[in-house]
Amino acid sequence: MKKYIIAIILGAVTLTTTTSCNDWLDILPNNEQVTDDYWKSKEDVEAVIASGYYYMRQCVPTFIKWGELRGGALYTINATDTKLQDFNMTPTHSLCNWADVYKVIGMANSVILYAPEVKDDTYYTAILNSHLAEAYFLRAYCYLLLVKNFKEVPLVLQAYVNDNASFDLAKSSENEIIAQVKKDVMTALETGAAKGTYEVDWQTKGRATKWALYALMADACLWSEDYDQCIQYCDMILNATDAFRPAFMTNTNDWYTMFYPGNSNESILELNWDYSQNQTNNFNSLFTVNASTPLRPTNQATEMMKQETQTLKDNGLTEDGRMGRMLMATYVPDNGQVVAWASSNQYYIWKYYGTDVPDITGGARAHQDANFIIYRVADIMLTKALALAMKGQGAWAEAVALINKIRNRAALPNFKDIDLQAPDAPQQIAQLDEWTLIEEILDQREMELMAEGKRWYDLLWLGRVAGGKYKTQFITKVIEGNQTTNQQWIQSVLQDQNAWYMPIPQADIEHNKLLEQNPYYSSSK
Known about the structure:
Layout: H1 4-9, H2 21-25, H3 42-68, E1 74-75, H4 82-85, H5 99-114, H6 125-150, H7 174-190, H8 201-206, H9 210-223, H10 227-238, E2 267-271, H11 284-287, E3 296-297, H12 299-314, H13 325-329, E4 330-334, E5 337-339, E6 348-349, E7 372-376, H14 377-389, H15 396-409, H16 425-430, H17 434-448, H18 455-468, H19 471-481, H20 487-493, H21 506-511
Antiparallel strand pairs: 1-3, 2-7, 4-5, 4-6
């Protein structure tokens, strides 16, 4: 019997053998499986890589829900999805299905195995190594997400292209998977072939570059509490001097352009849609006012938005100019019209939908083709700030400098009015404590990266860090954000760290005799 996870990874994958602009956005069926006799030219390799990005795009609604619903910044009243945000998941729940993620891994594994064997006189070593760098990124990124959501998963590193191979695989430990993630990044970088830019402008932001590999390594190092290496890889982005490097945009109004039209200077990697190529993201089902159960800011997040907006108003900024990230990231329905920050109490996310709301030029996005950002520079700045916060007081001034850049770009004053150029700055820094600094960074990440699939992982990092030093604060923040279940339930459930992760899909348990259920779900709880 064919093993279930082979179907996940191979699963009648169909590819085109050309790689036009449209192929990178939509892989059309052409009845060609990724078997070992498929690989004839560099175009064949490009087609498989394009499929990897295609399946990544298919994953985005799941990525958003995985990264947000438990984090207390967004919530839904959808009866199915509330099971995730209320920590009531079961192994048969649709949201613990990892099939599409393993499809991406399968594409990457195929490229890593077969691309070096392609006999094509025009397939130069530099092109091959560039393709491999993308494949290593896709595999490593997916495994990091799987670790953050399931803790331990099967570590599949070979391409399965037929039914002959055994596919009973046990879970690998979190440490083993994180080590493989880092190894993949290092392998991708060591040839020097990972690109900084591509020949086509949108691909510089829409395909993995050396900048995306640096960002992924920083992400993995923060997760594994390797703060020195995290800072090192953040600095490879933040201190870069390349002419076309990703760069933090300091102008407040430029914040809007990251989401409309997208592919901004600040972007490191984003998944692209293009309506002109008949591509829509279907985010209206997640974020629009007209959806029956959209993802919306929680009361806790809304209060933070209101406080931020009031600070801007107190400083003389107005809604009409759409100044400040929350004024540009959210909207509310008012008297039948959709406007920014009206008097209603129900707010909606603009970033990844936004067709309802005019931009600063007075026009609204015409189509549902907003991109989804994987990494951007502000994310890396705040990642570095967290690593610095954990390094001790001697690193805190640099962390505050990064916080202030984020706040100032949002038209907010310095953190605790600390001016690092002022004579009393060292005394002000000395009065801080680690938790105060971490909480401010997490608050800035909540506001800056809302709906970008980051919030739950930030809180999960908080609960895990330093042997559970901030477990109480982690649970408190989850409770403060949740508004769909009993607080006592969450307080009780989250005492068990195994409940912080999702169950292994039941179908995989049934078809893989070596695969064991995650501990919290292995009994009748």
